[in-house]
């Protein structure tokens, strides 16, 4: 299960390592918040959750595997956000990343709370996706009989 989860999160992790700096530099460039908001880890997590659920739907425990993907992916994807908090704080850049006063707050806020903000909706959306997949499979089976 762990091996499959690591395989599934590889590409989203690479995307997350690009998305966060892109968002940061767009914000520094003065792009309006409404556009910058559309580029973020939550959207990536939600899209990934749907993809992972589709890939995992035939596994013995798909929701457990989905949760494992989310629990590994989310904190790793938050590391660049934490680094950008430090850069923003150190050089007083004034981005939205500058919301914490110290390292402790940033670690808890970005890596723990931020991860939960990704894990919970990702798991809910994945669960709904799995229900739809199973409902469609059941409807198809009934229609064929």
Please give a handful of descriptors for the protein shown.
about 140 residues, mainly alpha
Largest sheet: number of strands, sense, barrel closure: none
Count of discrete alpha- or pi-helical segments spanning 4 or more residues = 5
Structural class: mainly alpha
Topology pattern, helix = H, strand = E: HHHHH
- Helicity, in percent? over 70%
Q: Taking Cα atoms only, what radius of gyration do you get, to the nearest Å?
A: 18 Å
Ends: how far apart?
34 Å
The tally of beta strands, per DSSP, is 0
Q: Kindly state the mean pLDDT as a whole number?
A: 94
Note poorly predicted spans. none
Overall form: elongated
- Strand proportion, as a percent range, falls in under 5%
> How many domain modules?
1
Account of the protein in words:
- The protein is mainly alpha-helical and 145 residues long.
- It has one domain (2-144).
- Helix content is 82%, strand content 0%.
- It contains 5 helices and no strands.
- The protein has helices at residues 2-28, 33-36, 41-56, 62-91, 103-144.
- The chain is elongated.
- The chain starts with a helix and ends with a helix.
- 30% of the residues are buried.
- The mean pLDDT is 94.
């Amino acid at each position: 299960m762990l091996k499959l989860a690591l395989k599934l999160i590889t590409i989203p992790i690479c995307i997350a390592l690009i998305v966060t700096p892109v968002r940061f530099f767009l914000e520094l460039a003065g792009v309006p918040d409404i556009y910058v908001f559309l580029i973020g880890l939550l959207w990536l997590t939600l899209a990934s959750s749907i993809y992972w659920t589709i890939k995992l739907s035939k596994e013995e425990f798909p929701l457990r595997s989905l949760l494992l993907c989310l629990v590994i992916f989310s904190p790793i994807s938050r590391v660049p956000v934490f680094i950008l908090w430090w850069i923003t704080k150190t050089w007083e850049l004034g981005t939205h990343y500058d919301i914490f006063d110290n390292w402790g707050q940033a670690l808890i806020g970005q890596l723990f709370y931020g991860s939960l903000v990704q894990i919970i909706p990702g798991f809910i959306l994945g669960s709904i996706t799995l229900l739809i997949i199973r409902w469609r499979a059941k409807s198809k089976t009934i229609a064929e009989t």
